[in-house]
């Protein structure tokens, strides 16, 4: 881990960047894709082009979504840092799982416009399984039981895939990758960027990540960041209802 410094970005600053880019991403997903560009059906590019105003909205949505790709790598990195510094992994996991359940109805309302949709779950569940995977690696690391570490990661990946949580098994593997390369920032940046290269702009997340100074940051905003997720989803759903119902 890099030495703490007064320069650069604190953990709080990283979280602000992550939630801001996530919010931008969800504006595109909920209001533009789920409202302006979707009239009860999925539109193709030719459909969009047939409406004079909609190509502009499609381009706007593309920009918002590209900005939003920055969020998850930062969340994964922050999770790794949280795991390395937490005094109680169990409480950390319970917190992630609790907010996963609290966020599910707001998530379903914002994205699918119904209170219960079991075909896709919010990212808190992915982060929870990623934390379990890291715990499994560390638990059997000293005992040099590689197969148990692999089994723990595999089980967490399978759980995320079966649950169909946001980013799924990839999200777990990506977080594990950041954990395994934590002592080598250059390798972490290169391998992380390559791993998530299927999302064109996600590699840009490693710019603020590399500016991380190893400090927590001023103030205690932990629960504010957790609460922001369900609250902003409910807000976007309210805007969607006001505009499109």
Description:
The protein has helices at about 10-35, 45-50, 55-70, 70-85, 90-110, 125-140, 145-165, 170-180, 185-195, 205-210, 220-245. Helix 4 packs parallel to helix 6, helix 6 runs antiparallel to helix 7 and helix 8 packs antiparallel against helix 9. It is globular, with a radius of gyration of 19 Å. It is mainly α and about 240 residues long.
Total strands: the figure is 0
Alpha-beta classification: mainly alpha
What is the 3D shape? Answer: globular
Which percent range describes the beta-strand content? Answer: under 5%
Can you describe this structure in just a few lines?
With 245 residues, the chain is mainly α.
Could you list some keywords that capture this structure?
mainly alpha, 245 residues, 0% strand, 11 helices, single chain
Topology:
Blueprint: H1 11-36, H2 45-49, H3 54-68, H4 71-85, H5 89-112, H6 123-139, H7 146-163, H8 168-180, H9 185-195, H10 206-210, H11 222-244
């Amino acid at each position: 881990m890099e030495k703490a410094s007064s320069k650069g970005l604190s953990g709080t600053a990283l979280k602000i960047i992550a939630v801001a880019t996530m919010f931008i991403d969800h504006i595109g997903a909920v209001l533009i894709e789920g409202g302006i560009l979707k009239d009860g059906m999925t539109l193709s590019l030719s459909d969009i082009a047939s409406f004079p105003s909609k190509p502009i909205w499609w381009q706007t949505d593309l920009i918002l979504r590209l900005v939003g790709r920055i969020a998850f790598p930062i969340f994964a990195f922050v999770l790794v840092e949280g795991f390395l510094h937490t005094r109680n992994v169990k409480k950390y996991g319970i917190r992630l799982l609790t907010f996963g359940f609290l966020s599910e109805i707001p998530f379903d309302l914002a994205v699918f416009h119904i209170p219960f949709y079991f075909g896709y779950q919010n990212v808190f569940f992915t982060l929870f399984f990623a934390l379990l995977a890291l715990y499994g690696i560390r638990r059997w690391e000293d005992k040099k039981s590689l197969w148990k570490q692999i089994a723990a990661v595999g089980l967490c990946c399978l759980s995320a895939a079966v649950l169909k949580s946001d980013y799924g098994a990839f999200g777990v593997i990506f977080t594990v990758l950041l954990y395994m390369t934590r002592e080598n920032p250059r390798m972490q940046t290169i391998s992380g960027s390559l791993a998530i290269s299927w999302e064109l702009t996600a590699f840009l997340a490693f710019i603020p990540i590399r500016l991380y100074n190893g400090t927590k940051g001023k103030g205690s905003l932990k629960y504010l960041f957790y609460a922001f997720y369900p609250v902003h989803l409910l807000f976007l759903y309210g805007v969607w209802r006001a505009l499109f119902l």
